[in-house]
Amino acid sequence: MRGLEALCGNVQVKRRLSSGRGLSHAYLLSGPAGCGKRTLAGLLSQALVCSGAGEVPCGACDHCRKAAAGVHPDILRVGSDGKDITVSQVREVRSDAYIRPNEAGRKVYILENAQTMNGSAQNALLKLLEEGPAYAAFLLLSDNAGAMLPTVRSRCELLTLSPVTPAEAEAWLLRRFPDLPREQILDAARRCEGVLGRAVAWLEGGGQEAEEVRSAGAELARLLLSGPEGALLEYCVGLEKWERDALGELLDETVQQLRVGLSSGWDPRRVMALVDHLRKLRAALPYNVGAGHLAGWLCAGAAAL
Ligand SMILES: [Zn+2]
């Protein structure tokens, strides 16, 4: 496969895809948010519809151009609205899959947030993976491959994306943002903890959002460590309005701030217990935990430590 340099890091995934074997009809792209699942799904879907000779995607044929512009009629997305994918949506995909492709030789379905499918939705999908028409291809994107049924997982080629190293992030971001000050890019590469999507969001947002998350994280770290409890409770109530992605960033940032605090004399045992608590909450986020619940657990857990 060509064009894989658009994906940062992830050497093993790239090696596997450029080994010259043909493309599968079903992939499970797994890895934390911001690790390149959408970038890779874009490349794979382009490669699947490409009509060029030689290595795909050629990047030049009609199909490649439409795919790159996001207007190819045979590349269909499900679940990109952030809501759970329901069994009736999977059934719609199923009936659509039996209608032959409009233009390309294949029809590609990209299922974002595939971990939000419940058991019946996944079973309906399983049937399609097993018995669907040969031209249909499926790209399942999931923050957590463990949330997928083993039967679904085993029908897919698993591509696990990992956080990138600071050096990989730096090189990639310098290429992507040639006009930004080098210092700002190095700072984003260092602070994103390997989650490139986070660094991209900061740099595209002109650093303002990053500053907001940074100060919110510092505030939360301070409240968790030294209270007062009433103020922490109030802060947590305010979190109920936050979006899931932003909450994830806030939790990551707070962990970072707590670590920084270790060197300024905070009680290490309490800091480590808090870090552990925040990590567990962070891991629960992809499972559609509501912000209200999360804020409650954050507060109750911290009080119990
Ligand atoms: Zn092409």
UniProtKB/TrEMBL annotation:
It comes from Candidatus Intestinimonas pullistercoris. GO terms for biological process: DNA-templated DNA replication. The lineage of its organism: Bacteria, Bacillati, Bacillota, Clostridia, Eubacteriales. Coiled coil: none annotated. This is DNA polymerase III subunit. Transmembrane segments: none annotated. It comes from the Bacteria. InterPro entries: DNA_Rep/Repair_Clamp_Loader, P-loop_NTPase.
